[in-house]
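Dear colleague,

Thank you for sharing your sequence with our group. We've completed the structure prediction you requested, and as agreed, I am returning the results in plain text so they can be pasted directly into your records. Please verify that the sequence below matches your submission; if there's any discrepancy, let me know and we will rerun it promptly.
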Amino acid sequence: MKPFHKYFSTLTAILLLNACTKIDVPVENQLTPATFPTTDAQFILAAGPAYTGFRDSYCLSYWQLQTLSTDEAILPSRAGGWYDGGRYQQMHYHNWTPDNPIIEDTWTWGFSTISTCNQILALFASSKDSPAKTSAAAEIRTLRALMFFFMMDAYGNIPVATTFGDTTMPVQKSRSDVFNFIESEVKAVLSSLSTATDMTQYGRPNAYTAYTLLAKLYLNAGVYTGKSRYDDAVTYCDSVIQSGKYSLATDYAKMFYPDNGPQMTEFIFAIPYDHASALGEQFNWYSLHPALQQKYGLSYRLSNPVSTIPAYFAQFSDSTDVRTSLWLTGKQYDFSGAPIIINTTKVGLDNTYTGSDGSTPVAYQLTFTPDVTLRDVAKFEVGGDELGKAKGIRNLKYYPDVTATDRNQSNDVPVFRYADILLMKAEAILRGATPTYGATALSLVNQLRTIRKAAPLATLSLDDMLKERALELNWENTRRIDLIRFGKYESSWGYKTDADPNKRIFPVPSGELILNPSLTQNPGY
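Please find the predicted structure tokens below.
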């Protein structure tokens, strides 16, 4: 268990959450504003439910929304499993509907967390003023602004409810208005946020979290408001860079190990996960084949559905780049060098085999192949035989947690990383921002590539920039936002041919429209 978790192991009992389109119900609790909170520790404790709510779906429904809707990952059916009514198939094809559970779950996660933030801020407002209160409130407002950013990015025009207990059904604000609200909210609390980057602040927003959020907001301003603000993006990237508080990790792979945490010099804001007390990180359960269970010494069965597609993996062509090694492709071996063997039959290996000797035993070496070919297009099915189960190159970025007893792992997951700061500054300059502190777009990218042991680039185009972001930030909830900003989201990949620009934002879930008739559905749905 990481130190941060001790503050939040029992916090879900303090506050109950409701989505912002539902009526908030006051929680009866013996901790009243007259007696709680007063000390630094009590304010941190009271803030806990916001962080547990934020943690819950960041690597689950939100990751599915941001990743499976791109070329980065595909989740097909294997032997009928994981079809789940076509929800993942819709993500890939871009033919989702307002009834898709991933879209509903992400909306509920986002606005429930916002509602929890509102409830915590209402509690703080009733307590005695103190430096601890000011700092804790600033952190919760920053977290709330981040959630509004995620929801605005995903759904466009959204409600902006900031008062807990208001029973008035919230109405949507335009994307530009939400952008302006997020900007003003973050700037309003900047001076009250801590500049600490050690264990005492880990897992909670600090000033550099706010700077990074503003930089990301400004880098995407053209998408959200129609007006580019690349110089502003550079300004706030520089606020992080010039602080000297962060640096690139010398070991990329270990940055994502189960024992990562506040010692990671790249993590600006991360979510602490723990397989026993802070659940929600299940990347390897999604990605790894069951035959790898013994190799990694895991006590639970792996599920296996998620892989990437050939076009995305083709970007990882530099064998010296340490980022390339975090994919599993080709023939698989254990740590002694022995092949990983699956004992099956000719039909078990390939159920399209029609020979009379189909029951003949076969010792098959597990081999991950790049093409995710469908056997049943309607069911998004790649096949339940051993060849079908091995289709698709697998991501091993978050190394398996051998201490886990189930699918949940202890790898902390970064929301903002220093590498992204360098890449955002480089991209903003490449798009026309004024260079600062002697850095060029090319020098910033090569600074990153050098430490990742990748060959330096001689020139830098926008296509190179997008590729570098794919190399560095895969599985980190950035691909959809990047593809939209680079004008590539309407491209074809895998089995997806849809080019409808309305799909750049998701629909308001059907259930929310019923609960709140004042909401308006997004165009194209």
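Summary note from our side: The first strand starts at residue 158 and ends at 159.

Kind regards,
the structure core
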